[in-house]
Specification:
The chain is an alpha+beta fold. The protein is built from seven helices and twelve strands.
């Protein structure tokens, strides 16, 4: 029976996934079977942040949970009990990183290891607590609606969300035109998106467009990935980091009034604004 591990790290690009062998699966069982402290905190992956946001485990073994997340000192069991566990010293998270072998590059492994070390130093659920406080301050609450249901969330990314189109293909700029971006940097991704119908603009006007909406492109040199934001009808920005839920918060847990100045984590390159008219864009 199969046990799959996915490193939740990219937004535009598909996340790396690999299968555990029998020995690794047995080690996973032992680590999960050890006595752990219970917590009501949820993994911050539920809030959606840019950059590394933990591991997802999916298993078809009867002796293992069907799905769980592990990040920032929390093992999120993704069930109806809402009881999660403390991953002391990030033992499970470190083990999952070790199993990646050839599925991650040395650069990716080093970046993730650095994030794991930083998170564990902050204590269990340190990022989660930050997001919890931010969410409590929202008036009114953000409702991402159709994007966060299981049959949609996993198969649509930031580009789908920016275009407001559910294709279940993890859409890539330029793919539908037959000429996808050949790099993750601003220029290739932006040019590929224009072939899909996006219209570059210098900056979004104060008024909402009569047709469509405004979107913004950013990229990360360290992560070698791109990401899109969308301006909503409430004059605030939102986004969907890869396979994780759509959110209107940045990496610091704050509402996004301007994608140029919000906390974007490792996505430090601001590429530009675009006018998106969904009836005139084609993505896949």
């Amino acid at each position: 029976m199969t046990t799959l591990v996915t490193a939740l790290m990219y937004s535009g690009r598909p996340n790396p996934t690999w299968e555990l062998n029998d020995d690794q699966t047995e080690t996973l069982k032992k680590l999960l079977g050890e006595k752990k402290e219970i917590t009501f905190e949820m993994s911050p992956v539920a809030s959606g942040i840019l950059g590394y946001r933990g591991f997802e485990i999916e298993s078809f073994h009867s002796s293992l949970p069907a799905k769980l997340f592990c990040f920032d000192g929390i093992i999120d069991m993704v069930d109806q009990t809402h009881l999660n566990f403390i991953d002391k010293d990030s033992n499970l998270e470190n083990f999952l990183l070790e199993t990646s072998k050839q599925s991650l590059t040395d650069l990716e492994k080093n970046l993730i290891q650095g994030e794991i070390s930083k998170n564990s130093k902050g204590g269990p659920g340190s990022i989660s607590k930050l997001f919890k406080l931010s969410l409590e301050a929202l008036v009114p609450p953000f409702d991402p609606g159709k994007w966060n249901i299981p049959s949609v969330q996993r198969f649509n990314n930031c580009y789908n969300y920016a275009n407001d189109k559910i294709t279940n293909t993890f859409a890539q700029p330029g793919r539908c035109s037959g000429s996808p971006a050949d790099d993750w940097k601003c220029a290739p991704v932006g040019q590929a998106s224009q072939r899909d119908g996006e219209i570059p603009i210098s900056s979004p006007p104060a008024a909402t467009p009569q047709d469509g909406h405004f979107i913004a492109l950013v990229s990360s040199d360290i992560w070698q990935d791109y990401h899109w934001y969308r301006l909503d009808s409430n004059a605030m920005w939102s986004h969907k980091p890869g396979q994780t839920p759509a959110t209107n918060l940045d990496n610091g847990g704050k509402l996004i009034s301007d994608p140029r100045t919000c906390n974007r984590g490792v996505y430090t390159n601001f590429c530009g604004f675009y006018h998106c008219i969904p009836s005139k864009t084609t993505i896949r």
